[in-house]
Design brief:
heterodimer; A: 124 residues; mainly beta; seven-stranded mixed sheet; four-stranded antiparallel sheet; 11 strands; B: mainly beta; three-stranded antiparallel sheet; 0% helix
Chain lengths: 124, 110
Amino acid sequence: EVQLVESGGGLVQPGGSLRLSCAVSGFTFSSYWMHWVRQAPGKGLVWVSRINSEGSSTNYADSVKGRFTISRDNAKNTLYLQMNSLRAEDTAVYYCARSGYSTSGGYYFGMDVWGQGTTVTVSS
Amino acid sequence: QSVLTQPPSASGTPGQRVTISCSGSSSNIGSKTVNWYQQLPGTAPKLLIYTNDQRPSGVPDRFSGSKSGTSASLAISGLQSEDEADYYCATWDDSVNGWVFGGGTKLTVL
């Protein structure tokens, strides 16, 4: 069974840092691109970042560029999100998600399996 | 303001067919494929439709997707009470070099 389990969320003061982890199982982690997506309380989904299967290529939403860093450890089957200079507007549930891959088409099509999320609250 | 525009709400009675629209531009829907996600209350999103009209295994064929030009649609036929959820469209956007979501549509089954 494919599973993604996020951890590392919590309460942090503005300007502080937090590192989120996403432990995966049930599939070959090193073969898949991965994403982080967040959802502020009562709001919609917002894409945060993605990383390719080797960890050599990353993309970020403008709202987090320069403050957040996505990374992965394929030996540990774990995805990370290092969050620095946190702001109140970063308060959200953070989901990690696998990028689905179409074997017939040979392309990645975006998030197909999601974790249950971890809550980050930025407040003094 | 979301890059992709969805109606904030939709509703229908059991057995009815409802559609949810998602409007974008040439830098996203107009040149990329669209996914749809269902988020039941208090749970993580679930992939419903990928590549415009493909259903992952396990998703009932009551759910269907389509795309035309810079717009996409999700149709739900034979509406059931358990379909009450938030629905989001998503695609890659070349202008922002990232994934973008619609603002979400809250579906109410009357």
